[in-house]
Amino acid sequence: MRIVFQQFCDSLTAARTVRKDSPSGEDGLTLVEMLVVLVIIAIVGSMIAMNVIDRPDQARITTTKTNMSTVSAALKMYRIDNGMLPTTQQGLQALVEKPSTPPVPSAWADGGYLSSPALDGWERPFVYTNEGSRFTLKSLGRDGKPGGEGVDADIEG
């Protein structure tokens, strides 16, 4: 074992003493080369940032559509349990707490159908309308006003 260890130490010592001589100026990166790399990284970073800046509104639209699906499913469960949808006056609050205004649901689920009032991606309540056996559910978009274009457009579900 001692012989193997001695050979190992000798090989390390030999490796340390054997060095290649490099031509002048090729030992590492210069300051100018480092600055060029940093400028390239900054340019790529700014290009990525410009593409990501428009994403928050897209994320809010996706959140709104997902929340609308959840509310639609809760409304369908409400209709299955009670044989009717909440009235327009009762609104979506009927999914959170049992309505006290007529028609009072006969088999309202313990704990409700949603844990809290549903909001769109801009933290505003959805617009709910009972149309008899159907319902309309929509978000008024970023501007909170009916109509609009782009991210300000109404989202219906």
Mean pLDDT rating: 82
Q: Distance N terminus to C terminus?
A: 77 Å
For the sheet with most strands, the description reads: 3 strands, antiparallel
Low-confidence stretches: none
Q: Cα-atom Rg, whole angstroms?
A: 33 Å
- SSE succession: HHHEEE
| Count of strand segments | 3
Measured by DSSP, the beta-strand proportion falls in 5-15%
Structural class: mainly alpha
Globally, the shape reads elongated
Q: What fraction, in percent, of the residue positions are helical?
A: 40-55%
Helical segment tally?
A: 3
Name the strands of the widest sheet in spatial order. 1-2-3
Condensed summary:
The protein is mainly α and 157 residues long.
Give a verbal description of the structure:
The protein has 3 helices and 3 strands, in the order αααβββ. With 157 residues, it is mainly α. Strands 1-2-3 form a 3-stranded antiparallel beta sheet, with helices on one face. A hairpin with a 4-residue loop joins β1 and β2. The chain is elongated.
